[in-house]
Amino acid sequence: MANPPTDGFYSEQGFELPSDVKLLARNSGGNGDDPTAYALSDVTANDVFARTWLVLVGSNLVVVDPGDAAGIRTLSLDVESAVSIVEGRGKSRLRIARQGKLEEEFHYTRRQARRFSELEQHCSAVITGEPQPRFQSGSREEAVPADERICRKCNQLMPEWADSCPRCLQKRKIILRLVGYAKPYKTSAAIGMVAASLLSLLMLVPPVLTKHLIDDVLAPLDFSRLGWMYALLGMLAAVILARVVCTHFRLKYLAVVGERIAHDLRTEAYGHLHKLSLSFFNKKPTGQLISRISHDTDRLWDFIAFGLIEILMSLVTILGVCVVMFWTAPTLAVLTLIPIPIGIIMTYYHTVRMRRFFHRIWRKWSRMTATLSDAIPGIRVVKAFTQEDREVSKFNSRSKDVLDEAVRLHHEWTGYWPKITLLLQMGNLIIWAYAGPRILQQEFTLGTFVMFSSLIWMFYGPVEQLGMMNRLLQRAATSAQRVFEIIDTPLTIYTPTNPVAAPKIEGRITFESVSFSYDGVKPTLTDVSFDVKPGEMIGLVGPSGSGKTTLVNIICRFYDVSRGRILIDGVDVRDLDLHEMRSQVGMVLQEPYLFSGTILANISYGNDKADTDDIIRAAKAAHAHDFVVGFPDGYDTMVGERGQTLSGGERQRISIARAILNNPRILILDEATSSVDTETEMKIQEAIRHLVKGRTTVAIAHRLSTLQAADRLMVLEKGKLVQLDTYDELINDKDGLYARLHKTQTELQSIFAV
Amino acid sequence: MSTNTELSETRDPRGAALQRELDGTLTFLPANGSEASRDCSILRSFPWSMPYQYISIRDKDGVERHLIPDLASAPDTLREIVESELATQELIPLIRKIHHVDDTFEVVVWRVDTDSGPVEFQTRHDEDIRSLDGNRIVFRDHQGMLFEIPNLDQLDPDSRLYVEERLG
Known about the structure:
Chain A is of the alpha+beta class and 754 residues long.
């Protein structure tokens, strides 16, 4: 069976129809047609995971149960059939009825929801005789969203936006790719590496010199060897000096190389981030993206500058110690090494446990800080409801959790070192017992023995280091993967290779049966068609959740349509140069965003070369000039996060000035719902009037004045365009949605407008 | 549509009934004999904390037609169909054993035995694992599938450790 569930665990995503099922369906579905849609019914009515394929071939729905050779049935669909989806909590079903009677229900989990939604649409199209919706194959219509790609190897969905399945991509490959970033700096990296290796080897020299000092000078008590002693001391001094130099070189070169690589990664990731579509940003919390670019790259610096090199140094040290020991006294070396395996095992378990403790303490810590970030911004509510005590005790108990965990953690590592010391001391005793008599018999020299005693201590640092190696590599690989994920995310919205030039857009906007869905399951816009003439102003109205914001977002091509086309001046937006097109579309958002910087910079955002005269003209048209000049710092007033706080009305007018200066051909206006005082309101209205003049405008409108100013109103309901007409016509259509909305709104206003 | 803020109006279950049509849909017949609502759906108001209380019957436009305060004391004309419909539309496999957890990369992959069969699923964020009143653990995988451990203490030690390590 193709695509078997992995080791019996149900993990199938049902994106691909297994070839044998396809063959069976084709043969039993009639005239050998190819399937048009399919879905995997993955659970039975009795809540047991199952694998029953539903394949639509022509007008037949073939039910294939691969576990059962005889389990092929065919349900034929015709005008008397009805196919619908009943959504449930965890379990949905495809209901097939015929002549008003239930025929069969197929159950499925959320995992298969997308395919079932497509199957249902295809079946409905068969029943009504409409042309088949195209989205399972074909070039543009298809555009399988990035989050629905499945890894062929492990049969699992790949993380939302990874280019390659991280579960199958080996750690080694990621680390190698990371090391590949060192290529431009290979000389510095090589110097650092050599210095580090040398440093490890130099660590071995002092014990060897000590041995000679004892054996050649101190033990014989021979004054004539004073010269030799000074020579040895000189060598020791030289070694110390060399170590200082090596340490310096190692740190200097590798730290700098690490920084450069981190910088390269950061800038590459951030640069790519700006090319990605909004759907990418919707899926990832801002904080996580920020942490990927700042925190993760910093962690990689740490890994390249220290982690990687410490692994190398540990290996060199261990090897060096072994070589020296076996070289001087093989039997003693074997004895000395006896406690080492025990120590290694202890160290290994210690690191595993420590990792677990760190994990837990980290979680408890973040729970504790979460109460802070929850309560402090909400301090007014806390005080108003006099919940101070409750918040404090909540924090106290979470802080206590951290304390308890920390006590356990400290208990663990404080227990480890004494145990290791005990082990080594015991080992030392064994060596004494073995070596003592032999020293007296002059089989060994005292110096050899002293050297061994000091070498044995050099084992544990590196062993501990290597015990942590796995975790170190793991963390680096994870961080690298997170950064690479950004870099590797394919662009879903981009300029085609041969874009249609549109240096000056006229402003005609045409929707041709546009449908759009954010997740591929629930449609947000369904079959919307309209035509907006250049210079026309359209007011967009409808209940919340009716798709207004989505509609304006897809005009700007923040997202690509799922079906149908959007044309600007008769050209598909997907054929236009993205940058050229967007630079001619302006947006005034409901909650205007001001960047930190001066008011001047904010108005001229996107128009760096704007003439000061033009900026002032735009500000005047937006009714912003007067209040801006009224500020002590005038146009140089700092706004944004750390700047002056502006009122909602002021921010609005600055963003309108920004749009006026930008002089777009098409204007998207998302009117603020929040009310401001009448005077400000009038000023904003006037500013908007200046703004919309001579441009195609699509306005999500709330205010009566805006609605009346619009040439036509577009009424959306549940993603469908239900009315499109002038204000007067819509008001007079008493049964229409708009007249009803208008009535409730005026009723509301009569209550509040006193 | 008037907003109904008074619970008691819809509270009295006497005489109200649900009816399963031949085509599989549900029809709600209100107590006062007013117009029936076709193609209704059943929703729980408190799926985790009070699964059998405040069960909402909604018409096909999503408008609440009836709120059952307590399913146990609801008349049979409602209770039986509500129970069968909830059973058909809900799937929350109970986890019996956790075989393997792989969290090599952010995405955590769980391989578990459930009362619905062995299954593999992925969680993405810490919030995907919720602990309700201490020992009851609920998982929501990245596609929205739900899994539950009714009592963590009754799981075998290895399985328990897997969960505890990833829990706050």
